[in-house]
Amino acid sequence: MKVHILAFGITKDIVGGSTFEFQIEEGSNVGQLKKHLQQQYPAFEDLASLAIAVNSEYASEELVIKAADEIVLIPPVSGG
Amino acid sequence: MKVHILAFGITKDIVGGSTFEFQIEEGSNVGQLKKHLQQQYPAFEDLASLAIAVNSEYASEELVIKAADEIVLIPPVSGG
Amino acid sequence: MIDIQLLHTPLQVEKCLKRVRHPAAGGIDIFVGTVRDQTRGKKVVRLEFESYEPMAISEMKKIAERATEKWPIQNIAIHHRVGTLEIGEIAVIIAVSTPHRKASFEACQFAIDTLKETVPIWKKEIFEDGEVWVAAHP
Amino acid sequence: MIDIQLLHTPLQVEKCLKRVRHPAAGGIDIFVGTVRDQTRGKKVVRLEFESYEPMAISEMKKIAERATEKWPIQNIAIHHRVGTLEIGEIAVIIAVSTPHRKASFEACQFAIDTLKETVPIWKKEIFEDGEVWVAAHP
Predict the structure, then answer these.
(1) ipTM, 2 decimals?
(2) What residues of C are in contact with residue B45 (Cβ under 8 Å)?
């Protein structure tokens, strides 16, 4: 299943763009997606943290991803 | 010795004016002045506190008063 | 820099902010004290503030100096109003700039807490049926 | 009342103050975060903020709602800027009005502390010889 991912901050630099597509198995959850992303982009492992938002909410590792979901990489935030 | 006293806030209402003159013995200190004032104006004893400033500084009870001092009655402050 | 003012005219937050801004400041905390429309359930019509002016200014200055000793303050402004204030008007503004935000909150809170204890300013609450000097009695 | 804004234009303290003023408010605390000219001793030229906008707004709204549950808040405004900011410019303003002052300080500090942890906004520091995404690495 192909998912569409948005990247912000340093993750945009790591993946080389603000959006990209990524192949995951049907029924994968957020934890599995994150693991695959870290395999593809080892620089993610150097970050202080990497959260994933699904449809504008922080997602737990257990959340199962659907093809239409808006998936967003959230490296350490630094607003304020 | 005659001293000149300024009153603010509720002390102004109690003494009936914003300045008044008061007779104390030569060599009196702030504590003694306060005691005499409380005898003259019993309403002072009902206040939550009564501080005395001498020459624009809070004065300790032990400070000896001189005739030229600017003496000010400071009832509980309520700025802010 | 310390900026102390006792004013008979409306206070302006923008002016205090301007006084404390600093290129090395990361956090500015501003406390604004406004006149409430009621006190212990009773409707307040307006407030009247009076002060023993020279000492009020010197006590506010002492507060700013003590805060500057305790926290790494870049600038601090304390503006207090006196005279007649209507509901919602600003009685006091304290603004503090520091390199990091935590100190700005702590110093600002220290300044307003201390001001309410030491600065010779008195307020009278005017009700529809009377008036009272705030905090005068236990 | 909760007022959340994510703006591409300069923030104004006066506007936030206006949004939170309330006749029953006694204390308003305003936190202003400004761009510092240096970080760990290195000269900063400017900052660039970007955000995941819909989520940034919803997370700021959550903070305001949580604060309103914890403290007796009359009004709270959270305005955050995005885009390029020069030294000294305002990145964020949080204003909180409450009946008594202590709660305004606590709620305002809670809001800025939480904002820095949860709201998807990222800042890049631009130096004379490079740039870095703040806090990205341990």
Answers:
(1) 0.94
(2) none
